[in-house]
Amino acid sequence: MTRRPEVVLGVSGGIAAYKACELLRRLTESGHAVTVVPTASALRFVGAPTWAALSGRPVADEVWVDVHEVPHVRLGQRADLVVVAPATADLMARAAHGLANDLLTNTLLTARCPVVLAPAMHTEMWEHPATRENVATLRRRGVTVVEPAVGRLTGADTGRGRLPDPADLFAECRAALTRAEGDTSLPDVPGGPTEPGEPAVVSARPADRSDDLAGRRVVVSAGGTREPLDPVRFLGNRSSGKQGYALARTAAARGARVVLVAANTSLPDPEGVETITVETTAELREAVLAAATGADAVVMAAAVADFRPAHRAAGKIKKREGEDPEPIRLVRNPDVLAELAADRSDPRRVVVGFAAETDDVLANGEAKLARKGCDLLVVNRVGEGVAFGTEDNEAVLLDARGPREEIPRGPKEDLAHRVWDAVGRRWSGERDIRPTSGGG
Ligand SMILES: Cc1cc2nc3c(=O)[nH]c(=O)nc-3n(C[C@H](O)[C@H](O)[C@H](O)COP(=O)(O)O)c2cc1C
Q1: Is the CB of 154 under 6 A from ligand 1?
Q2: Atom from ligand 1 closest to the CA of residue 125
Q3: Residues 60, 125 contacting (CB under 8 angstroms)
Q4: Which residue of 117, 257, 429, 431 lies most exposed, with the fewest beta carbons within 10 A?
Q5: pTM of the predicted model as reported, rounded to 2 decimal places
Q6: Is the CB of 204 inside a 6 Å radius of any atom of ligand 1?
Q7: How far is the CA of 225 from the centre of ligand 1 (A)?
Q8: From 11, 36, 63, 88, mutation site for ligand 1 pocket: most ligand atoms within 8 A of C-beta
Q9: C-alpha span between 60 and 103 (Å, rounded)
Q10: Considering the chain, what percentage of its residues have pLDDT values greater than 70?
Q11: Cα 123 to averaged position of ligand 1 atoms, centre (Å)
């Protein structure tokens, strides 16, 4: 077992601090464990809750908190990479002069891993001889100082000093980690978890997650289908599509070609993913079955309506004075998951279902896994405020021929990675023996 690369993401107090959220998302989605260390000024731009929610870890911004764990040296010593984005003129001046007057500069002084600084500031500040000398000093010491981009700056002015795109910064981070791996291999952690309560990574070393699905074609469904009653009304469900989108994004980040069949979501199309929008179960079925031909995996995260109204009124159903409306008769919809699972024309294709249960979660999940015949089933408890629309999820991952895996509460991206890890194990032919006790 290996541990995830430890990344410290330092954020200093520039207007571009919000862009570091996107860099953080890219890092976590590709399997890096990230601790965010904002300066006091950075926290005036983007608050600690944002960093904590996106990283899944408490935010480290104080030398005087948890002093028994000596955070002022521990973070830097443990890091495989320290990246600061944006790096202010002030932060670089302090780093160049070896100051250690906050947690981020302490971390920079104790880090022995690669350090990447991504400056962002007004052109005048960037061109000032003091900043030029600080940058030169830092580069001489082996720090990677990324050239700022040219473009729109704070306010109306343009020029050099803009923070490069998060995608480019992510590429810089990966390159720095890869270079370091070439020098000394990232350490193995026997036994798994990197921190108490953090899930063990049981698949290939997660640094490799960034392209471990390369060459694979996968289909993900997301959202919730709607069944029209008339041209203005429908029967629907509360699914936001966030879990399915996290699955699509993480698969793409790990190198897979992804088709996302999205039913009634209001989320932006994930980058690098072919997104097909549908409304009804019939449309979803058609799109998923078409995309599933030749696919290596199909993950059915969409909440697909079990029933639809037997009749769809051609015009709006009118309210009539003194009359109750006609009862709505429902008919069953096709079971898309069972249909996919029953089609074993390609035995290597892995079919993953999702089960949203309100009670008897595990028993109902086990029964559904057996009934549907899919390979893996992600079972989560849902209800008011739980799972639907939230940023977090927790679940039990059932494997038709392996042990069950508890996935603790965490960002939907984490759960998505665990699903792809399990799919990857299926592809590589790993077989676990389901314990007879039902535990594990
Ligand atoms: C609205 C606003 C935007 C700022 N943007 C930048 C910036 O992009 N780059 C920079 O170097 N400083 C910028 N500053 C100044 C820094 O916030 C200031 O130098 C601060 O002391 C930096 O602290 P830190 O390096 O500890 O984060 C900005 C200040 C304000 C009020």
Answers
A1: yes
A2: 11
A3: no
A4: 429
A5: 0.54
A6: no
A7: 47
A8: 88
A9: 8
A10: 88
A11: 13
Which residue type sits at 94? R
Alpha-carbon gap, residue 34 to 6, rounded angstroms = 6
Kindly give the distance from the C-alpha atom of residue 110 to the centroid of ligand 1, in angstroms, as a whole number.
24
Does the CB atom of residue 13 touch ligand 1 within 6 A? Answer: yes
Give yes or no: 264 in active site.
no
CA-proximal residue: ligand 1, atom 4 (nearest): 14
Annotated active-site residue in 237, 264, 333, 380: 237
Give just the sign of the alpha carbon dihedral 337, 406, 23, 143: negative
Q: Please tell me the residue having the least CA distance from ligand 1 atom 14.
A: 14
Tell me which residue has tokens 């009118």.
318
Gyration radius of the chain over CA positions? 25
Tell me the average pLDDT of the chain. Answer: 86
Phi (first) and psi of residue 199, to 5 degrees: -65, 140
Identify the pLDDT of residue 56: 93
Ligand 1 contact via 36 beta carbon (within 6 Å): no
358-372 pLDDT, tens digit each? 888 888 999 999 999
122 CA distance to ligand 1 middle (Å):
10
95-110 residue pLDDT tens: 999 999 999 999 999 9
Instruction: Indicate the top mutation candidate among 9, 37, 41 to test ligand 1's pocket, ranked by most ligand atoms within 8 A of CB.
Output: 41
Sequence-separated contacts (24+) of 266-272 with Cβ below 8 Å: 267/240, 267/241, 267/242, 270/245
